[in-house]
Design a protein that fits this description.
homodimer, NADH Oxidase, 47% helix
């Protein structure tokens, strides 16, 4: 018997269809409180959440993120931003000179944001809500930043739809543990055999899910993805003051 | 009444002193299974966990991460790596040519790793274990990578100590919600007043925790951090094949 929390974690599946029932304010505040309690590098807490309730902005964000209708329709849509601006404002109260924007503090801010968002996702799921992360927010990060008034040293890492699920998709099988967990050193052979095994698992899963129509292995879908690398992200981030060194 | 999972999330505090009791293998496997079920960008699952059980490697990692003894002493020490190597091996089965290593897929891999690690942290805490993230693993990432045999397109994002807590620290107060949650657009004034309010909270917390010896606000400790930016990370990551574009 595992604790309830383990069940919540293992039952995660992305939800892309929501009931219109709103999330009550106290529940959303608790979800954000849970997000804030995540680990944070040296207590820097380098993340900011924009709760987009304005319907015009929602519509615009849905378009900018690749026409994903559920961004417009879900009860709550959050944009999770990595934020070195707040940290810099705080430091400036006692420090003359500029923040050196490095790859290191880019990592710190991105990781802080992800840890907090994942706590929010789990808190929401424990309350019976569903979520989906929206990487598509990085399709047009310049326009998204302008729309949300993000200052320099802040960037949108991902969006998150949240609400009561109106669908019950299957949980998707993950890579075999041998391919992602190694003891003492990286095991390239275990990775290779893990990919092979997982290709079979995913082909089976896709066939079942599509009633025989989709016959695709994991590695095939990875190869298909390789041409969509959002090449603009480096220039965009440097324009926002990140990755200077 | 909130679900048990919310309590687990809100009770997080970093643990730096552990009992020697081992974590049973089935519990560790379940923790990793929970990690794997986290959201992942397009099912890429760009992370790898190295479980460092070898005592010599532990000792070395503790030195390389800034002489943190608990890295050597904790029952389980995991190194969480962002991994584009596995994805590339899979894609290569069907795709001629090189992976373009971009800022975008660096973000994908770093975020995938953080989401999975946070699931592991929460799973562990729900089982009564404590954890602490070790950003110090990035003090000497080249040496850490060599020690763990990490191939190119893999980098150590952070370590994680795990085990039965042998201390009961207070949870540390977080920024007021007004400073991290905004509606529809970024609110710089709320950030400023939030910093001011939080400075008072943290000064009080530090005074209480140190029995009157530490009189430091949050912004003061942020200013003190600004000189330690691990400037090597950019060059290191490029040498490992990341951030080429």
């Amino acid at each position: 018997m595992w604790p309830e929390t383990i069940d919540v974690l293992l039952n995660h599946r992305s939800i892309r269809k929501f009931k219109s029932t709103p999330i009550p304010q106290p529940a959303l505040a608790k979800i954000i409180e849970a997000a804030q309690q995540a680990s944070t590098s040296s207590s820097m807490q380098c993340f900011t959440v924009i709760n987009v309730s304005d319907q015009d902005k929602r519509k615009k964000l849905a378009e900018l993120s690749g026409n994903q209708a559920y961004i417009e329709e879900c009860p709550v849509f959050l944009v999770w931003c990595a934020d070195l601006y707040r940290y810099e404002q705080a430091a400036k109260l006692h420090y003359e000179g500029e923040l050196t924007s490095t790859v290191e503090n880019f990592i710190v801010a991105t990781v802080d944001t992800a840890l907090a968002a994942q706590n929010a996702a789990i808190a929401a799921e424990s309350l019976g809500y569903g979520i989906v992360y929206i990487g598509g927010i990085r399709n047009n990060p310049q326009e998204v930043s302008a729309l949300l008034g993000l200052p320099s040293h802040v960037y949108p890492v991902f969006g998150m739809c949240m609400g009561e699920p109106d669908q019950a998709p299957l949980t998707r099988p993950r890579l075999p543990q041998q391919a992602i967990l190694h003891e003492n050193s990286y095991d390239q052979e275990a990775v290779e055999s893990g990919i092979q095994q997982y290709d079979g698992t995913i082909r089976q899963y896709m066939l079942e899910r599509s009633e025989g129509k989709l016959n695709t292995s994991w590695s095939e879908s990875m190869a298909a993805k390789i041409n969509h690398p959002r090449l603009h992200m480096g220039d965009f981030l440097r324009s926002k003051g990140f990755l200077q060194k």
